[in-house]
Structures are given as structure tokens and as C-alpha cells.
Design goal:
The protein is α+β, with helices and mostly antiparallel strands. The protein is built from five helices and nine strands. It is elongated, with a radius of gyration of 52 Å. The protein has helices at 12-23, 61-75, 110-127, 140-162, 173-183; strands spanning 2-9, 31-36, 51-58, 82-88, 91-97, 132-137, 166-167, 189-194, 201-206.
């Protein structure tokens, strides 16, 4: 994108300064083109034209994004990182190279995605239109794409086999698109996104919807169902055992066993019955 301004002045320098003020930049930040040279009036009264200058600035979104990224890397102590710009349709790829820069990728590319998001904002601010910036290190993006494609197809096949939905971990929009594209190649599977903001993730399931889960048996092998009565030979049908040598007892169902008959208790005789008094014989007077 090119921003430009055309201004006039008594001299070329004055015209240039006027155009730079209109653009809001310093003269050394812009390029200029002289459209008309100033001419003096004849006899100081007739004719004469001021200088006319065109001042312009080339705003390249990719260059602006690379410059911004370079500043961040310098703050991280990575001043020796080289940034290569590769123009793409509606955007550009910034490829980083250097020593010991693998940590910039972060856990599952989270740090790299954060830098990519920020540089994308800078690039889109230049011409206020969509301009996609991609940051790559050591062909990481291509390797990650292959991994996600394999994952999407594997989960899709599992969903068809089990008839159940599977949720993947949260991903950025770019990675979610890779998963959706991979699932579309598996017949009988579908995918969609759920969640908000950082929790947005892909769900993969059978195209016809989830199958109802089979009803599970609540009792194991060899166990009776709940509240099922014993089928015979159970405890409640057993006859009570008779005591040994107790003789024949009452018939079953005639009531409780009364046990052996009780013998009458005989009172003991008085100790002095039939014996002489303790202090001699006492004769009763007739």
C-alpha cells in the first residue's frame, strides 16, 4: 500500500515539507517526486508558478510485521535471528532461522502462535484489510499440519466404529481448519467446533449422530437378579434338625417343640422329724 500527498510551495523544499506534514511523517521517512519546478514571474508581475511535489510512503504489511517481530526478538535476547519474508496470497510467511531458537515455538506452538497473532495485528493495521501473517521455525508448521491431519482421520475412524463423539484439545482457528478438512475425507464422519475463546475445540462424531449406548447388565455372572427368591432348597425350606435321643417330636407345622416333660418337685422332710428332742425327752403329763 502506498500513501501519498501532493503539495505546492515557492520552492521544492517548501513543497516537500508541506506534503510531509499532510502525511504526518518526517521528510527522511518518505520519498518524493517533483512534478513541476517553480517559475518566476515575468518582470515580477506576470506569470510564474510554484513548485509542485508528490511525496509518498510505501507501506508494506509484511515489512511492518517483520520489523515489529524483530523488535520483540531483540527484547528476548535474540538479536541474531534472521527473518525471511515469503509473499503469499493475501499474506506472507516470516521464516525464522538462527541458533537456539527452538524455545520460541513453546508448548504445542503456543508461543509461536502468540507472536503470529501480534504481528498479524500490525500487518492488518497498515492498510486496514485482511492480511494473513504466518511465522514458521524449522518447518514446524508443515510438521504440525501433518500431525493434525493424521489425528483428525484417526479420531474420525474411531467415531464411526464406536458411534460416539470425541472432543479434541482447544486449538487456534488455523489448526481447527486443518482438522475439519481431514475429517471431511473420512466417509461417515463429521466435525464441528464448540466452546468460546481459548476453550474453543473440535468435536468429531458419526455423521448419523451418536448411537445409544447398550443397556448394561447390573448383575454379574452367577449372581441372582435383585429381589429374586431362591428356587428351592433354600434356607427357608429347610426342616429343623431334631436333637439327638430326644425321641419323636411334634409334626412339622404343629408349633414349637415343648421339650421333655417336667417332673413334680418333692419337698424335703424336716430335719428333726422322727428324732428325739435335742435336750432330752420331755414327758407330757397325762
Amino acid at each position: 500500500m502506498i500513501k501519498e500527498a501532493i503539495a505546492t510551495g515557492e520552492t521544492v523544499e517548501l513543497a516537500k515539507e508541506a506534503a510531509c506534514r499532510e502525511l504526518g511523517v518526517e521528510s527522511y521517512e518518505a520519498e518524493f517526486e517533483i512534478l513541476e519546478m517553480p517559475t518566476k514571474k515575468t518582470f515580477g508581475l506576470f506569470g510564474g508558478n510554484p513548485a509542485k511535489v508528490r511525496v509518498f510512503i510505501k507501506n508494506d504489511p509484511a515489512e511492518a510485521a517483520a520489523k515489529y517481530l524483530k523488535g520483540i526478538l531483540d527484547k528476548m535476547g535474540l538479536s541474531a535471528v534472521d527473518i525471511q519474508i515469503k509473499e503469499e496470497e493475501n499474506g506472507a510467511q516470516l521464516s525464522l532461522s538462527g541458533d537456539d531458537i527452538g524455545f520460541i515455538i513453546g508448548h504445542r506452538g503456543e508461543t509461536l502462535d502468540a507472536l503470529q497473532y501480534l504481528t498479524g495485528l500490525v500487518a492488518n493495521h497498515i492498510d486496514n484489510s485482511y492480511y494473513r501473517i504466518t511465522i514458521d521455525i524449522g518447518n514446524y508448521r508443515e510438521k504440525r499440519k501433518e500431525t493434525l491431519e493424521i489425528l483428525g482421520k484417526k479420531i474420525a475412524a474411531k467415531a464411526i466404529k464406536t458411534g460416539r463423539n470425541s472432543s479434541l484439545e482447544p486449538m487456534n482457528p488455523y489448526e481447527r481448519r486443518i482438522i475439519h478438512t481431514a475429517v471431511q475425507t473420512v466417509e461417515g464422519a463429521k466435525s464441528w467446533s464448540e466452546g468460546e475463546d481459548l476453550s474453543r475445540h473440535v468435536v468429531i462424531g458419526p455423521e448419523a449422530g451418536e448411537r445409544s449406548a447398550p443397556r448394561r447388565n447390573n448383575y454379574g455372572k452367577g449372581r441372582r437378579p435383585y429381589n429374586d427368591k431362591p428356587r428351592g432348597g433354600g434356607y427357608n425350606n429347610r426342616q429343623p434338625r431334631s436333637a439327638p435321643n430326644a425321641g419323636p417330636g411334634p409334626s412339622v407345622g404343629s408349633g414349637p417343640n415343648p421339650g421333655p416333660a417336667r417332673q413334680p418337685v418333692q419337698k424335703a422332710a424336716p430335719k428333726n422329724e422322727g428324732k428325739a428332742p435335742l435336750y432330752g425327752r420331755v414327758d407330757v403329763k397325762k
